[in-house]
Amino acid sequence: MPSRRAHQKSRLGCVGCKRRRVKCDELQPKCSNCLRRHSQCEYDSAFPILWVPGAAPPQQSMAANATRLHQSSVSVATEDRDLVLPRKCNSLNAAATPPGSLNLIDLELLMHWRDTTYEIFCRNSHTRDIWQSLVPQEALKEPFLMHGVLALSAVHLARTRNKDPMSLYINTAVSHQNQALALFRPSLDNINESNARAMFAFASIVTVYSIAFPQAPGSLDPQRAIDDLCQVIVFARGVQQILVKAADYLQDSIFKPLLQWGDLEKRLPEEAHVAFKNLCEVIHDLGADNARYSYLATIDCIQDSLAEVCGGFGAVAAATKVAIRMPPTFILLVRQYDPLALVILGYYCTVLHRLRHNWCIEDKGAQIARAVWSILAEQWKHLMYWVMQDIFGPHFLTRLGTE
């Protein structure tokens, strides 16, 4: 009897074929089986970003990736070693372009970056040319950066072009992000002079990508909304380690202006100053509570960032600076829905709300503030009054009741 022909095993087939336990030919956007059955064809994302010493290669099973992703979402203590893209950013079908064809969508995305998308990173006139021109030039040498540029442009178009089918751009964004991460991960332990500019740029891009990616179904649930924000915060803290390593090589390069912040004007409104002062007094009254340091340290960085925003600094970096400076123990308290930690997170929403003119943030501040308000028990809500009035106006109770 002739031996059965050997075949390569693959775990990258579509969801439908896996469920029916049949071999998938992995054609995209629709495999042959689903095409024949006239059924929807969906692929899992193959490359969630993982940054761990000695991590398994991208060929590891989906189950292992999912387990790793879950562990990172519940453990803040390991965030200095793990870097995981929030689950909402890699959960959709990834589109593909047939080999040999001219990809007009990618050309559109690159043009859109140079026209508009780059502006989200510009803090001043000195950084404008870097993000508009030099980053795309660097991307020609480092494919992971080019995929990152195209991914963020696709998300930007998905969020700002209402007349175009959102799913097309989102699928394209996920596809490029998957490819970017697969190429990016091997370089994490080898940041050097030749790739530092690309690593720095991509780390910045992927942070905005995680903030901007459209919310998944069910994210209107208050706890889910808060959990998603925590994931983004943890991710931003992990990315910061890449920025620090790469920055050592940028001091004498054309990217040096990205490291120079200059003196930012700080102007905190009196009502905000009073609200922060009252909140700190409540925390001091707790005595020797173990969480007090985390509370006060987080309040300090939120207050500092809010003063900069009120002083005229309107870049997304004002929000990410807070996330980077938050103590890991504070994030853990938020994930446990600790009342005071949630109140302080509400104060962070006043920063996000003032940055809503940025397309990647929009109404995120109001969404999280509403989620915190709905979770808090009545005895804690008085600490949120200033936040709710600042975001929703003096008659916020009436407004929330009618939404």
Helix content: 55-70%
Quickly count the helices: 18
Pick out the low-confidence regions: 1-9, 45-82, 91-95
**Could you tell me how far the N terminus lies from the C terminus, measured between alpha carbons in angstroms?**
71 Å
Helix vs. strand class: mainly alpha
Q: What characterizes the major β-sheet? A: none
Question: How would you summarize what this structure contains?
Answer:
With 403 residues, this protein is mainly alpha-helical. It has helices spanning 15-20, 32-37, 62-74, 104-115, 125-139, 143-160, 166-184, 196-212, 222-247, 270-284, 292-310, 317-325, 328-335, 339-354, 364-375, 378-381, 385-392, 396-402. It has 18 helices and no strands.
What does this structure look like?
This is C6 zinc finger domain protein. There is one protein chain. By secondary structure, the chain is mostly helical. It folds into three domains: 11-43, CD2-Gal4 (Irregular); 104-259, no CATH class; 270-401. The chain is 57% helix and 0% strand. It contains 18 helices and no strands. The longest helix has 26 residues, at 222-247. It is globular, with a radius of gyration of 23 Å. The chain starts with 14 loop residues before the first helix and ends with a helix. 41% of the residues are buried.
